């Protein structure tokens, strides 16, 4: 059996390898570097994404290196609070805090440690991919394959290996994307920002969520990632380059001292690849889509890609592979557009627009119902999934009692398809995968039964509703 070749060993590529290996699919993981990138980049994932980390077997380890985020505060140029959007720091609908702040190198160490425990995965660092053949087109036999050619940077030797599939998880400047001729559609957002990461000598005593400064003269973001680790982001003016960052971070420090561990200029863009598949080659993560950071969904979108594609590859059903781009692309585009709107609302405009924005934000905060909408953290449903109004939505994950133990729902569901039903057993034709009768004994809190509303629910391996009868 040919291996799946994964190009790029960042969080999305490593997660893809873990998901496939757990399902018995052999993998070859290639990266230009032998060790994870040592500096912070992504800093936030929501409870839906921690649920994916649970599937990877690393949720408990992740919780030990992350901290719950309290939500979002919108500040004016003088750092006065205009609005506050709180998140549940205990348990959200998916069994974890709704916002989770972390240092990406910590997450990558957790993922690499998990990968090392699995059979069927080979990792080669210091390998540059120089060629990919797409193999047979969609709908062909499961035995079709692609070829990947990589060069060992240390020796210059080139190797070509067959691949059951190739996953391009190699970032915004993806080599794989270029090799399959995919281009990026510009969704018309581009801003230059300065990102500063620092370690302070004491806790700053800041509110434990994300602070967004809605000042058109200098839009900024501030957040705490770890016990003494902080991040600042400042929008740059056209042609501006800042050498000394201390005057910018100073207002947040008081009398604390800070050691700057990274400062980097980024251009935040909104782009989506025109196609995510060519034959046996697929694009995931930043290779397929890039988003501004204003709703904290960049890494989460890539991990969703990995979860969506891995179980379909492992199933051996070629028809399922055609659904990967059809489901994930509209979802990613919707979240990118939401990030663009959020970015404009929080940072865009000139002085007059900023004044109007403050009035509007204050009004929104006072209107019943709109506050709840602003606090909602669930992602949009997937398109083109199954039957019924609930199809495409992610099922919640309450605690249940399974085989005498209190566990999160996914542990009871198992790794494959599952069918949830109530007192009346469904017709056999409506059962797929593991049948689970949801009784008061299994669901003592009643949360699962309230969500089901007496229906029979068919869940895919990624916990997305396929059908509700």
Automatic annotation (TrEMBL):
Name of the top EC class for this enzyme = oxidoreductase
Is Repressor set as a keyword in this record? Answer: no
Please give the start and end residues of each transmembrane region.
Answer: none
Leader peptide range in chain numbering: none
A Pfam family reported for this protein in Swiss-Prot or TrEMBL: FAD_binding_3
Its domain of life reads Bacteria
Q: Where does this protein have coiled-coil stretches?
A: none
Q: Which UniProt keywords apply?
A: Oxidoreductase
Task: Tell me if Oxidoreductase is a UniProt keyword of this record.
Answer: yes
The EC number(s) this enzyme carries = 1.14.13.127
Molecular function as annotated in GO:
3-(3-hydroxyphenyl)propionate hydroxylase activity
Which residue numbers delimit the FAD-binding domain? 3-337
What is the protein named?
Bifunctional 3-(3-hydroxy-phenyl)propionate/3-hydroxycinnamic acid hydroxylase
**Species, as recorded:** Dactylosporangium roseum
The lineage is: Bacteria, Bacillati, Actinomycetota, Actinomycetes, Micromonosporales
């Amino acid at each position: 059996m040919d291996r799946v070749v994964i190009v790029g060993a960042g969080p999305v590529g490593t997660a893809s390898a873990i998901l496939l290996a757990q399902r018995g699919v052999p993998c070859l993981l290639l990266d230009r570097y032998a060790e994870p990138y040592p500096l912070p980049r992504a800093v936030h994932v929501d409870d839906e994404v921690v649920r994916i980390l649970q599937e990877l077997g690393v949720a408990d380890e992740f919780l030990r290196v992350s901290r719950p985020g309290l939500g979002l505060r919108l500040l004016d140029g003088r750092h006065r609070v205009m609005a506050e959007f709180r998140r549940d720091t205990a348990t959200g609908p998916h069994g974890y805090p709704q916002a989770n702040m972390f240092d990406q190198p910590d997450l990558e160490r957790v993922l690499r440690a998990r990968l090392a425990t699995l059979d069927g995965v080979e990792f080669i660092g210091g390998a540059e991919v120089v060629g990919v053949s797409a193999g047979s087109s969609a709908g062909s036999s499961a035995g079709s394959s692609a070829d990947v050619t990589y060069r060992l940077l240390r020796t210059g030797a080139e190797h070509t290996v067959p691949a059951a599939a190739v996953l391009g998880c190699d970032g915004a400047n993806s080599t794989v994307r270029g090799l399959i001729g995919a281009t990026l559609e510009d969704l018309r957002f581009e801003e230059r920002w300065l990102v500063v990461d620092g370690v302070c000598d004491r806790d700053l005593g800041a509110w434990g969520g994300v602070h967004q400064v809605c000042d058109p003269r200098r839009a900024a973001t501030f957040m705490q990632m770890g016990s003494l680790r902080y991040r600042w982001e400042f929008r740059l003016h056209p042609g501006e380059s800042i050498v000394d960052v201390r005057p910018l971070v100073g207002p947040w420090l008081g009398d604390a001292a800070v050691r700057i561990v990274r400062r980097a200029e980024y251009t935040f863009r909104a782009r989506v690849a025109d196609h995510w598949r060519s034959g046996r080659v697929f694009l995931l993560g930043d290779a397929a889509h890039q988003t501004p950071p204003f709703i904290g969904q960049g890494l989460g979108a890539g991990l969703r890609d990995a979860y969506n594609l891995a179980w379909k590859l492992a199933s051996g059903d070629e028809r399922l592979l055609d659904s990967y781009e059809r489901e994930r692309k509209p979802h990613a585009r919707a979240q990118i557009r939401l990030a663009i709107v959020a970015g404009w609302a929080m940072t865009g405009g000139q002085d007059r627009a900023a004044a109007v924005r403050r009035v509007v934000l204050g009004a929104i905060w006072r209107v019943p119902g709109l506050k709840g909408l602003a606090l909602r953290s669930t992602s949009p449903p997937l398109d083109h999934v199954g039957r019924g109004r609930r199809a495409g939505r992610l099922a919640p994950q309450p605690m249940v009692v399974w085989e005498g133990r209190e566990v999160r729902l996914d542990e009871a569901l198992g790794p494959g398809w599952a069918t949830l039903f109530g007192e009346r057993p469904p017709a056999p034709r409506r059962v797929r995968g593991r049948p689970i009768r949801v009784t008061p004994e299994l669901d003592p809190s009643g949360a699962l039964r309230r969500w089901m509303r007496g229906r029979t629910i068919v869940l895919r391996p990624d916990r997305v509703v396929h059908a509700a009868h």
